[in-house]
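Re: [help] complex structure
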Amino acid sequence: MNYSKKVLDHFLHPRNMGIIKKPDRESQVGNPVCGDIMKIHIKLGKRKTKDGTEEEFIKDIKFQTLGCAAAIASSSMATELIKGKSVKEALAITNKAVAEALDGLPKVKMHCSVLIEEAIKKALSSEKY
Amino acid sequence: MKQIYLDYAATTPVKEEVLNAMLPYFSKNFGNANSLHSLGQKSYKAIEKSREEVAKFLNCSPEEIYFTSSSSEAVRVATWGTAIQNSKLKQRVSGLETDLFRPTILSLSTEHINSLDTSVQLIDNNIQVKQIKVNSFGEIDINSFKAQLNDSVILVNVMSANNEVGTIYPIAEIVQLCANHKIPVHTDATAAACYQKLDVKKSGVSMLSFGGHKIYGPKGVGVLYVKRGTPFKLPYKLPTPDTPAIVGVGKACRLAKLNRTAESQRLTKLRDYFIDRVLTNIKGSVLTGHPTNRLPNIASFLFKNVEGEAILLMLNEYGIMASTGSACSSHDLKASHVLLAMGFKEEDAHGSIRFSLGYDTTAAKLEYTVKVLKETIEKLRRIGFGP
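Output below.
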């Protein structure tokens, strides 16, 4: 499998792996049959924006992933990308952005980035925004 | 960083003696063996000498040996060349019209995917393909197999030993059972060729195939044995022979025969030591294939709650090289058909790793591999959902 240096880096040294004891949001996607399972825990915080309104943001995020190198790297990169962002910004993340941030994924592995996007949207959509 | 190559079942290095035998035929004695002049005849003689060497290796006549481009091609030629001829012969004997006579190929469900695909291609020629089922060790249930044999079966494909899990098959017994229905048996001996005595006279098998690059010979050459009298016709004219590669496989056969007993004994000991260390030290690990009736060099495992490609890439960082039956590592995202045929679930097959030992494997290298493997699996389980 032809992986970029960034994918290998995020695979060998994943960021944000683990669990949050009392998460505000969580979700699990994938299934053992296809070989990839991803779970994310999110801690939300509140902060004031520039125009004085309040917004919720991703205070902390952790992932657990059972899967191949692309699945682990996608989880690591995606959580890095949305950590500290507002919930609105986090919901706008796309699998393409995750793959680009990793300097690309092999075509046959793009579904790994789709899966982590699904996990994030599922977690943050558990209450309507 | 030192290299610990444990993927000999994928391919082997060309031994120095084999390479030296091949070299003169690249640029010095480079003639086309089909040419009538003396340079061509030098190639021709070298090929015939190699054919004799291979015939000694298999205990057959040189006229019964064909050289192909690979063991995959040898399997295809064997299947196409026999299936169609035997199908015509049996149809004539049965007296049934074409659309009433349903010829059948029986293929082992754990056969190499190339062999299974080749048989499936013949469905267009009105040929049925049925699988011979196996148990959780990959062994054939002989009684079920006997029940599948009848006069419409035109070919039985059973490999000599499985390349993924190492289980060895009773070819001589299968040949005997098939003989009652005049069914030719083809055996793919690619994985077995280095370590098992392939005496075709003793087993009585009709056809046997293997390749150069799994027996410390070159890639780009395969061998097909076809017993005289087998209903067989070459499906197409074989191309210009690759003289250096053919010389190489002959030499490789000679060396394999000389080293077979000692190397099989040495690797069996190392394999069993390695298996024991892995199963003892790594939680949630299972050996796949028959525990004892397996090739001397294959140690294949399933590891729970961890994915095969991820294990391999981490091992690779430490210079350790192996392979996996995980779907994530294949281009079609399908899990190993061998493991599925043995009754393992898809989610179990994802955590499969095959280590295959070879000529430079030592106890020290295996000990280091166990240490790194344990750390790797523990790390991946921490990233995931634990053991």
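Chain B has 13 helices and twelve strands.
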